[in-house]
Prior knowledge:
Blueprint: E1 17-18, E2 25-26, E3 31-32, E4 35-36, H1 37-42, E5 54-55, E6 62-63, E7 68-71, E8 74-77, H2 78-83
Antiparallel strand pairs: 1-2, 3-4, 5-6, 7-8
The structure holds zinc ion (ZN) (4 copies).
Amino acid sequence: MSDSRICEICEKEAIEAECPLCKRQIGKSCLxxxxxxxxxxxxxxxxxxxxxxxACNICGLLxxxxxxxxxxEEIICLNCSSKRRF
Length: 86
Ligand SMILES: [Zn+2]
Ligand SMILES: [Zn+2]
Ligand SMILES: [Zn+2]
Ligand SMILES: [Zn+2]
């Protein structure tokens, strides 16, 4: 059995790096700023340190748990919550 592994995203290229967020083994063309293109698209816009799993109810930006607050069942990013007084 050969050990030549291919990029887990496009399945077309040799592995160059491991995405630090999702741990996918990825090739050069699927790498974007040291993370994979999939994580890059879902990265928290505010801290750019972790994946976003929610969207701000006001501006619609994708943010992570640390960069958002929950007010009356609404998800508000830190940016909007600092502009608005509740
Ligand atoms: Zn690839
Ligand atoms: Zn990734
Ligand atoms: Zn964040
Ligand atoms: Zn917002």
